[in-house]
Amino acid sequence: MNRKIVNRDIATFRGDVAVLVPAAGSGLRLGGGVPKALRELDGRSLLSHAISRLTAAPSVGLIVVAAPPHLVAETAQMITAETAADAGTAAGAEVEIVVVAGGATRQESVALALAAVPEGLDIILVHDAARALTPSGLVESVAAAVREGHGAVIPALAVVDTVKRVSAADAVLGTVDRSELRAVQTPQGFRRSILVKAHADAVDQHTDDAGMVERLGLAVHCVPGSEYALKITRPIDLILAEALLRAETA
Question: How many CB atoms lie within 10 A of CB 2?
């Protein structure tokens, strides 16, 4: 079952980018008794915060949310209610949002959302709802890199902590050279044909879509990430996100 919040012909889409938002995960580490994407941050769900920032990116014409299968209608209603404050802006009014039933895994949810994107949108971004404060500028940066010719693009930050390799018995085996390490964020961007092939050829589960593209032997390009694009996974992350929100409005 699909729920369309805004319905328009593809020729009228504002931008050339579709964003897939897998939001069907339970989020056990975050707690709260509700799916992680529906946990509240400053009175709005993480999903609502993420959508607000996605719609502020001029390139985005379509957002497909993969919700828990039993909460498709409720998720669509929640998005409508929580984004009502954004409806007066051009961005909020012109982006189509579709809610589909997600799958048992993140990878399956992305595939189901991808199948709902109509022909004609060839730049596909995949974005975690848990990265609710990702700036619209980062969305544009990833989309621009795909538009410029990169088949797969990821935002990334340099690793600042010292990283150790350890054994199963927690004995240190060595120190990893962090100069070549990056912490990867979302949204990750792809040419549609590449993302479709990556999912079609996948034989096991991956934690991100760029990893599936790597398995195809194709290049993945990095652009600078953002500290605001932190992944809200644990209760302490909510505290950090609240501080960032206060800093935005200070």
Answer: 11
